[in-house]
Amino acid sequence: MSLIILLAALTVAQSPASLESKVRSLIAASGAEVAVAYRSLDGTSELLIDPDKTFHAASTMKVPVMIELFRQVEAGTLKLDDPLPIRNEFRSIVDGSPYKLSEGDDSDLEVYSTVGKTLTLRRLNELMITVSSNFATNLLIEKLGAEKIRATVTKLGADGMKVLRGVEDSKAFEKGMNNATTARALLVLFEKIGQSKAVGAAADKEMLEVLKRQKFNDGIPAGLPKGTPVAHKTGTITRIHHDAGIVFGPKPYVLVVLVRGIQDQKVSGPLMAAISKAVWESH
Question: Which of 83, 190, 208, 250 could serve as 231's disulfide partner, Cβ 3.0–4.6 Å?
Answer without folding.
Answer: 208
